[in-house]
Specification:
heterodimer; A: alpha+beta; 13 helices; B: alpha+beta; four-stranded antiparallel sheet; 4 helices; 24% helix
Chain lengths: 466, 100
């Protein structure tokens, strides 16, 4: 009997579906799993463990570069904890968006860690991996057929952008996880996935109503972020058919009707509708009730199956190499004139490097204290006592970017401007060198939705016995 | 009355890299109703604060959490060269001073 068959035998009984316990162990695997709540969660005998590892929030660098956002050591620790925990109670472990962005290099690095951990810990299980890399030809074909549209404020997708992207992924839904489980998987490590799919695939497969299962998945995927005070501790969801209960495994974090309802707003453009590849989660009729001061019961979410499958596709493209200049300033006259000083220095620098830096480069300034964070429409009512200046250069090569930043440093330091009194230098450097090479810059070139006829060919499952 | 006086949460975050969402959560239903009725929280007024066209801003009441969601286009896709806030978590500043 494989893992999903075993689960089925436990919860699908002649008396009806038994309560299904789902332990969300991490909303961002690789940043540490708090021990006490995790152990408390395991003691509740969950039917499976799930974790989300990625997101598009951290920006285009991770998808573009193939690198993880989390450190190798911490990621390995978290993976080890989740794998050992799941194996110790003999239940499946599902991980979504492996390696932060879920493209091939992210998935492969995560799988290598999983195999290493299994070897070191003497764990044996059936491992399924699911790829989420979208074939370029398929996307181009969909563009020509008018089946790709932008998600929000991004231009229509072109075939040129498809070719230029370093990695292209699609978000898989529950269907891909279900195929992996049908193949007998104990552990599923998935590339780019909807965060809900990790938690809703098993309940939907066992016959629980998809609306509440999907709603529970949506709330659980961030672990105890839906509680008050919010946190990262493991969260237990218990699905009883038409409703479910949310229970933080940290006794100090309470899931209240208000805290859970409010979580539906988080990072969502539409608080009532969550669009998934296979349909839409509609929470307009959802009701949130306190079970006690610590737990909340939720009912009423509906699932609207899609008439056509859609896949969110994501891609990132290299822009250039980045260097930054980091400096402070406490001179009131320089601070007041900074908006004029920076472009004036840029003009000088562009003339000076015109022979040595032949490829185009771009400069961006942020003056923290004035407009580093938000593009304010005017200057502040009073100028701050100090500002922090960051000058960013994106050029064709790291040498070019650093060269521009280095020259900029010297001319900004000694730039003469009307009324200058601090003639020793305009800047305070916290350390030297204050110009730092900051790696490759990427941008999101693809954030679109693509209509597809079938999901299965896009997300191939590979099985290996460990 | 300032929004800051009756809201317990005023936060911003990306909802995907092309969209910014601002959540206003209130201490009580009275504050929520007052804010819902305020001209300063109409899409056109918010659009002006953020340098956008009114059609780029949507205001959505969310009674289950006595909250108001504001959704708008990002001017730059998150992480594009020149972006100031990749996660969009510090774009709530202009709302703090508004009168309702």
């Amino acid at each position: 009997m494989n893992a999903i068959q075993k689960l089925k035998s436990e919860v699908v009984t002649p008396a009806g579906l038994q309560p299904l316990r789902v332990l969300a162990v991490s909303g961002q695997l690789g940043y540490g799993i708090p021990d006490a709540a995790f152990i408390a969660g395991l003691s509740r005998k969950p039917h499976f463990l799930g974790a989300d590892m990625g997101s598009i929030d951290p920006g285009p660098y991770y998808l573009g570069s193939g690198n993880l956002a989390t450190s190798d050591a911490m990621t390995r620790d978290d993976l080890s904890k989740a794998l050992r925990g799941a194996r110790s109670i003999g239940v499946p472990f599902l991980l979504g968006t492996a390696g932060s962005a879920g493209a091939a290099p992210h998935l492969d690095k995560t799988l290598a860690m999983v195999r290493d951990i299994a070897r070191a810990e003497g764990l044996h299980f059936r491992l399924a991996s699911i790829r989420a890399d979208m074939p370029r030809d398929l996307i181009k074909h969909a563009i020509r057929a008018g089946k790709v549209r932008p998600l929000g404020a991004i231009p229509a997708l072109t075939e040129h952008e498809v070719d230029a992207a370093t990695h292209l992924v699609g978000q898989m839904g529950i269907e891909a996880f279900q195929r992996a489980l049908t193949a007998g998987a104990d552990v599923v490590i998935a590339g780019r996935a909807c965060d809900t799919a990790v938690f809703a695939a098993i309940p939907a497969m066992l016959g629980y109503p998809v609306g509440p299962a999907m709603h529970m998945a949506k709330i659980s995927e961030c672990c105890s972020l839906c509680t008050t005070p919010g946190g990262r501790d493991a969260l237990l969801g218990t699905l009883d058919g038409d409703s479910f209960t949310i229970d933080s495994m940290n006794p100090l974090r309470h899931a209240t009707p208000m805290s859970v309802a409010a979580h539906s707003l988080y990072e969502q453009g539409d608080p009532y509708r969550v669009i998934e590849p296979e349909g839409v989660l509609n929470t307009e009729a959802a009701r949130y009730e306190a079970v006690d001061e610590h737990r909340c019961r939720i009912a009423g979410a509906r699932w609207e199956p899609a008439t056509r499958f859609t896949v969110k596709i994501e891609g990132a493209t290299r822009v250039g190499e980045r260097a930054v200049l980091l400096a402070g300033c406490a001179d009131p006259k320089a601070i007041a004139a900074m908006r004029e000083i920076l472009p004036a220095v840029e003009k000088t620098v562009r003339e000076l490097v015109s022979e040595s830096v032949r490829s185009p480069f771009a400069l961006y300034y942020r003056v923290y204290g004035i407009d580093g964070v938000f593009e304010w429409q005017g200057p502040p009512p009073a100028m701050p006592r100090e500002v922090f200046v960051m000058v960013e250069c994106i050029a064709a090569s790291a040498e070019d970017a650093k060269s521009v930043a280095t020259v900029f440093k010297q001319y900004l330091l000694h730039h003469g401007f009307p009324g200058r009194i601090s003639t020793g230098g305009n800047l305070a450097f916290p350390f030297t060198p204050p110009e730092v090479v900051a790696g490759t810059a990427y941008r999101f070139s693809v954030y679109h939705v693509m209509e597809v006829n079938a999901l299965e060919p896009l997300f191939p499952v590979t099985i290996e016995d460990i | 009355m300032k929004l800051l006086d009756i809201a317990r949460v005023i936060r911003s975050k990306n909802a995907g890299p092309t969209t910014l969402t601002l959540d206003l959560m209130f201490n009580d239903a009275a504050g929520y109703q007052r804010a819902l009725a305020a001209p300063s929280l109409e899409p056109a007024a918010i659009a002006e604060l953020y340098g956008l066209a009114p059609r780029q801003v949507e205001v959505i009441p969310y009674p289950p959490a006595i909250a108001i969601k504001i959704v708008m286009d990002r001017k730059l896709v998150a992480g594009d060269p020149g972006d100031r806030d990749v996660y969009g978590a510090q774009q709530h500043g202009p709302l703090l001073g508004i009168e309702i």
